[in-house]
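Dig into this one:

. . .
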Amino acid sequence: MSKKVLIVGGVAGGASAAARVRRLDENAQIIMFEKGPHVSFSNCALPYHLSGIIENSDSLVLMQPETFKKRFNIDARVNNEVVKIHRDKKIVTVKNLLTGEIYEESYDKLVLSPGASPIVPNLEGVTADHVFTVRNVVDIANLNNYVKQEHVKDVAVIGGGFIGVEVAENLRMAGLNVLLVEFAGQILAPFDYDMVQILHKEMLDKGIQLIVNDGLARVGQDYIETQSGKKIAAQAVVLAIGVRPETALAKDAGLEIGETGAIKVDHNYQTSDKDIYAVGDAIEVYHRLTHKPARLALAGPAQRQARAAADHMYGIPNRNNGVIGSSCVKVFDLNAASTGLNEKQAQTAGIQYDSVYIIPSDKVGLMPDSNPMHFKLIYEYPTGKILGAQGIGKGNVDKRIDIIASMILMGATLEDLKELELCYSPVFGTARDVVNMAALVGLNLLNGVYKQVPVTKVRELVENEACIIDVREKREYENGHLVNAVNIPFSEFRQRLDEIPKDRPVYIHCRSGQRSYNVVVALQQLGFDNVYNVSGSFLGICLYEYFNDVTTGREKIVTKYNFR
C-alpha cells in the first residue's frame, strides 16, 4: 500500500524531502504545505537582489507549485499553513491563508521543515514600516522596493551574522550609506577574533560604518539609537540579529524539544513520534567534534537530513556523521570560509588545542593574480587531530576549507594533512599548498621544533618593552614597523649575532612569518634557546590592530601600517 506523506515547509529541507520520497515511491501521495507564497526559493541568494546582482526578485524563486506537480506529481500548496497536528488521529489541520478555509489532511508519515524565524527584539520602533527582516523573497523584495521608492540614503543593519553582513555589503554596493551594529565584539562568529579583524578592515575600507560591542536600543523615524547612546541616521532598518527555530507546531503536538530549544530528533531524524520526522533549521543536531547537541541553520545539512529522513521511511539505512558547521561568505573583495571548531568553541568544549596562523600566497608569486591567503588551522593537543580551520583571502579559500572539512570527517591528523596529495598548477595554487604548509607548521609546534606567539600578544609585548627583532630588509622596515622593534635583516643576522640578547626572550618577525621562522630555527642551533616566532608577523599585526586603532583612537604600536 502506498504511503501518504505530508511535508510542512518547503525550501531546502521540505522540497528535498518531497523530491526524494517521489524518487523512492512513484505511487506515494505527497502534499507539501508552505505558509508563504513560494515553496522553493534560493534563501542564501536573497541579499544579492539588493545590489542588482540578481536583478529580478522573481529569479530567486526556483520552482513554482505547477512545476512540482508536472515534474514530480507533488501537490505543493502555497499560502497554506499547518496550524495543528493531531497525532492520535494522524491528521493535520490546515488553514488556507488566502481564503480562510480550514481543512484536514491525514498522513502516514509527516515531515516537519518549518525553518527558523528572524529574532525581533521587544524595543521601541521595531514594528515601524521602515523596519525589515529578511527571511524570504517577499521580505527582500519589500526591502528593495522601499529603499528605492522612498529614496533612502542611510540604512542601519542590526546584526553581524552572515545575513547581516551580506545585506550590508549589497546595500553598500547599491550606493547607500550603510551602518552595521553588532552587539558582540565582532561580526561572523565562526571566525576567531584575530582572523575577523581582516574582515572588519575590509568593511571599513569599503565605506561601511561598523560598530561592535554595542546593540540596538530604539528605532526612531529616521534614525536608530544604540545602547551606548549613539544616534545615527537611518531611513530604513534591517533586523538581522539572528534566528530561532520554529517549534510552535511541534510543541503544541507534544513532540520532545531538545536542550538547545530546537526539535529533538534521533539519528534518522525521527522525532519522539515515530511517524513524524523533522529536518532543517528547526531541529537539534549532533556536533561531531564537541559531542554535544547544537543548532545549525545551513542549507547543505538540511538537504542531507531531508534525504536521510525520506530514506528511513523506506527502510534505507542512514549513516549520521553529525555536523561540523562548514560555511563561506564573500565580503566585498575578500572570500572567507570556516569549518569545524574555532578557538572559542574548542575552549568552551574543554578540548586541549593549539593553532597555526600562516599567510602564504594562494598561487605562485609569479602569477599576476597571486595574493596572500590568511589561513588558521586548529588542532587537538597532543594528538594532532584536526579540529577546524578558517581562511580569508582573494583566492579560493573555499577549496582549502573544503579539504579540511573532508579531513575532519575522516578523523585525520596533522600527519595525514601533511601527506595529502593535491593537484597543482601555478595558475591554481602552489606546489606545497596552503593546507600542507599549515600541517607542517603545526607539526613543528607540536614536536617542539620552535616556539611562537600570536599577533594577539604583540601589543602586550610592545607595551612591556620586550625585545622584538624585525628581520625584514631595511627598506621594508622603513615603510612601517613596530615602534620598539630593532631591524636585523634576514640577510645580515649571522653577522650581527652579538646584537641579539641571550638573557631574555627574543621575539622575531618578518612580513608573514616565513623568514622569521628560518631565523628562529637557525638561532636555536646557534645557542639561542629563548627565541619566539611571531605568528602572522608584521602583515598579521597590522591587520589585527587596524580596526581597533581606527575606531577607538588608541595609541598605535606601528609607525605605519603595511598591508602588502
Summary: The chain has four domains: 4-116+244-313, 131-241, 333-449, 452-552. The domain at 333-449 is CATH 3.30.390.30 (Enolase-like; domain 1). The two ends are 68 Å apart (CA to CA). The CA atoms of residues 28 and 439 lie 50 Å apart.
